[in-house]
Write a structure and sequence with these properties.
The protein has helices at residues 12-29, 73-86, 96-99, 112-117, 131-136, 144-152, 168-182, 186-198, 247-258, 265-271, 337-343, and strands at residues 34-41, 44-51, 67-68, 219-222, 225-228, 244-245, 275-276, 282-284, 289-293, 297-306, 309-315, 322-328. It is of the alpha+beta class and 356 residues long.
Length: 356
């Protein structure tokens, strides 16, 4: 395992990096080929890694490496939507019908806010992904219209606003809304509004099947064997999960988001207005999730998965303490977000970050 950064003799400077090193080693011991993380606090920055970058090889994971961030993409998409709302170019209570007429059945009853909060009731298209289809379509370019059309042929899960269920279809639709409002693809808006101003030079959005170097390989379990799935066209996930980044860039993004550099007070309040998820200690905002951890610590952020890669990026509300973790997958599953965060809760630790 590698690490760098300065530490202090108390608090996170000692217990945080050490506990994080242990947690990454545990992920690898449990079957992950590799894992990496960047931890930031008031005393320094630590880049840590464990395991190998590729099965059957000896090259270690590069702690500064690129990875597919999966649904952490949703936070970028939600940020652009909230910026547009703050500029008065759309309303969170606008209907889908206003911006993307006829895109899905019931578009006149579904609002932008419901897409953001997973309360639209739309059928979640990723429920239909199979191992066979994932392998067959790994280089296929999907359009948002294809994805949404497929979901629209399925019965809704519930009436808009009646419940909550995690939904990728809604975020693909939000990418289409952004394009209708601005006249250019959602990816261009993410670049102009977020990546360029924050100088996130190691974050990409687009349809390239290749990851930049360095990167670790991700795997899909196929009949009990790991199949390398690193090369993949991310258009299958689009505005819901198609981005690539690094731990350092994600920490920088969430720091700017949570401290008001990307959203004004009203829009940041909307982002952090939460609803219950059905899991104790976990509440959902607009593109972010709030987790209540041991010792009365609360963190904000997002987790995400994309074939072969799992990402967790969570932060104290003032962004003084930040953690992003990427794990590659092979044959084993991933720990739940609550389990992973509970293992490393000391990196966010009390007392200044206790819930209020």
């Amino acid at each position: 395992m590698t690490g760098n950064g300065a530490g202090s003799a108390a608090g996170v400077g000692v217990s945080g990096p050490a506990r994080l090193r242990q947690a990454l080693d545990e992920l690898v011991a449990d079957g992950a080929p590799g894992a990496l993380a960047e931890l930031r606090d008031e005393t320094g920055t630590w880049k840590l890694a464990s395991g190998v970058a590729e099965l059957g090889a000896t090259q270690p994971v590069d702690a500064a490496g690129w990875f597919r961030i999966g649904s952490v993409t949703k936070t970028f998409t939600a940020t652009v939507v909230l910026q547009l709302a703050g500029e008065g170019r759309l309303g969170l209570d606008d209907t889908v019908q206003r911006w993307v007429p006829g895109a899905v059945p019931g578009a006149a009853e579904i609002t932008v806010r419901q897409l953001l909060s997973h309360t639209s009731g739309l059928y979640n298209y990723t429920r239909d992904l199979t191992t066979e289809g994932i392998l067959r379509d790994r280089l296929r370019r999907w359009s948002p219209h294809e994805i949404v059309m497929h979901a629209g042929r399925q019965a809704p899960e519930f009436q808009p606003g009646a419940s909550r269920a995690y939904n990728n279809t809604g975020y693909v639709l939000l990418g289409m809304v952004i394009e209708q409002v601005t006249g250019c693809p959602y990816g261009e808006q993410i670049v102009r509004r977020i990546l360029y101003p924050l100088e996130l030079r190691h974050t990409l959005i687009g349809d390239s099947e290749l990851l930049p170097e360095p990167h670790a390989h991700g795997y899909l379990a196929v009949r009990g064997k790991p199949v390398d799935i690193t090369v993949y066209n991310p258009s299958q996930a689009g505005a819901a999960g198609g981005m690539v980044s690094t731990a350092a860039d994600l920490n920088r993004f969430f720091s700017a988001l949570l401290t008001g550099a990307l959203l004004r007070t009203g829009e940041l309040r909307e982002l952090q207005t939460t609803i219950a998820t059905g899991t104790p200690g976990v509440e959902s905002g607009l593109g972010v999730t709030r987790y209540d951890l041991p010792d009365d610590v609360t963190v904000w952020g997002k987790d995400g998965s994309f074939h072969g890669y799992h990402t967790w990026s969570f932060h104290t509300a003032d962004a003084r303490r930040q953690l992003t973790v990427s794990m590659t997958a092979a044959l084993t599953g991933r720990p739940t977000t609550h389990d992973l965060l509970a293992r490393v809760a000391t990196v966010f630790g009390p007392p200044e970050n206790r819930r209020r």
